[in-house]
Amino acid sequence: MLRKGLVGLAAVAMLSSVAFAKDAKSGVERDGKTTFAQSCAVCHSVRNIPEVLVIGNKKDWAELLEEGQQFPSAHGWVGTRKMPRHGGDPKITLNEFISAVAFMANASGADPKWKEAPELDPEMYAKILEQIQLRYQRNDLYDKIGKKY
Ligand code: HEC
């Protein structure tokens, strides 16, 4: 009886670790709306910080929408001025970040709409990666010469 119980327990433990491994492997990423709600809304839904770009405020977003998706996505990811790198979320993936920026941009007047990471054209994805690289290089250089950014 006891033995059967233990075998049963072991089987349950195995099953749950398999299920866990599968989840981790499939690496389910949050969409823009979910990421925004969980990681960005705390700052980007109200103007508690004067410089913040409030979601839905077309005036706040107009200039960034003009720049094109690669710039705010890359600069926000690296962090800029009062925007903490990765939005301050230590677990966020780049895809989730890109999707959250697209979600905010689309709610703030982007036309044509910006695509979330899974639907992003490879060309735009490459441009974002390039801008991230450039921004890190620039920051390194600024660090060396003691310039603020
Ligand atoms: C702690 C508050 C805070 C959180 C959390 C935060 N942001 Fe920001 N973000 C800011 C502020 C403030 C700015 C304006 C920066 C400035 O001009 O000083 C900003 C700017 C940005 C920009 C514009 C970057 C540029 O090119 O100028 C993007 C894009 C952005 N945030 C995306 C996000 C995303 C996506 C998230 C969630 C994953 C997020 N932010 C979470 C405070 C925050």
Folded structure, characterized:
The chain is mostly helical and 149 residues long. It folds into two domains: 1-28; 31-145, Cytochrome c-like domain (Cytochrome Bc1 Complex, Chain D, domain 2, Orthogonal Bundle). Helices cover 63% and strands 0% of the residues. The chain has helices at residues 2-26, 32-44, 58-67, 70-78, 94-106, 122-145. α4 packs across α5 (94-106) and α4 crosses α6 (122-145). 23% of the residues are buried. Heme C (HEC) binds at residues 35, 39-40, 42-44, 49, 51-53, 64, 71-72, 75-76, 80-84, 87-89, 92, 97, 100-101.
The biggest beta sheet is recorded as:
none
- The helicity comes to 55-70%
Kindly report the CATH topology of the largest domain.
Answer: Cytochrome Bc1 Complex, Chain D, domain 2
CATH hierarchy: architecture of the largest domain: Orthogonal Bundle
Tell me the total number of β-strands. 0
What is the radius of gyration? Answer: 20 Å
First-residue to last-residue Cα separation:
68 Å
The average pLDDT score comes to 87
| CATH top level assignment of the largest domain | Mainly Alpha
How does the overall form come out from the CA principal axes? globular
| Element pattern in H and E | HHHHHH
Q: What name goes with the CATH superfamily of the largest domain? A: Cytochrome c-like domain
Q: Can you give me a brief rundown of this structure?
A:
With 149 residues, this protein is mainly α.
